[in-house]
Amino acid sequence: MSDFESQAAVDAADDETSVGTAVAMDDDYTKPRGWRHGATWTYLIMLLASAVALLVSFILSADTLKMARNPGQKLNCDVNAVLSCSTVAESWQAEIVKFAGLSFPNAFFGIAAESVFVTIAVIGLSKVAVPRWFALCTWLGGLAALAYSYWLTTQSLFVINAMCPWCLVLMFSTTVQFMALSHATVAVQDMPSGHAGLRKYYRLNFDLMVDVVWIVALIVVILVKDGPMLFA
């Protein structure tokens, strides 16, 4: 190989290194930074929301067993005709899973699901590296839990025409759980990899505005539908 060819090869290698370094620097620049985008904060919020959801699932399960042992008895969270745990618990939507002639209350599945999310949040707080497929499945599981919660809420609002106060707490905690999980998936797990748009969304804290609007929108829908009756 001539000196010219050798020098050309060296220059090409230097160019590739420079390009790789530039890409790495650009990738590092666009990544969300700061305490709010770290594993400690994102997974802590997820842990708190999941713990609340888990506690509420236990309470709803206990209420279900109480009603099974004492048919016709009203629950302590029966406030009025609209805010009524008993009305919701007695609907078919409260036990949509049936197998071998048995009905399984939704709250039992809530205990199982939220226990998993609490465990995942603890793993995230411990900063243990997880496979990308695991992070993806976790996010999809959070999305499924959110969709299921919203379906139950819409059934309560527009079909059953009664709301369970504990169910509302569960719905809002599941919403915050999904917000935190999505934040951690992008900012901590870097998924989807190198997606500049999502990185910018969190880096510029647009998520804070969207999350506030999201929560307010849920409250407005509830108040518009049953506002006067909630305080009757």
UniProtKB/TrEMBL annotation:
UniProt xrefs under CDD domains: VKOR_5
Protein localization: Membrane
Membrane topology label: Multi-pass membrane protein
Top-level taxon of the source organism: Bacteria
Keywords: Disulfide bond, Membrane, Oxidoreductase, Quinone, Redox-active center, Transmembrane, Transmembrane helix
Annotated TM spans: 41-62, 107-126, 133-151, 157-181, 202-224
InterPro entries in the cross-refs: VKOR, VKOR_Actinobacteria, VKOR_sf
Residues in Vitamin K epoxide reductase domain copies: 39-185
Transcription recorded as keyword: no
Pfam family for this entry, one: VKOR
Gene3D superfamilies (alphabetical): VKOR domain
Family recorded in the similarity comment: Belongs to the VKOR family.
Protein name (Swiss-Prot/TrEMBL): Vitamin K epoxide reductase family protein
Native source species: Bifidobacterium adolescentis
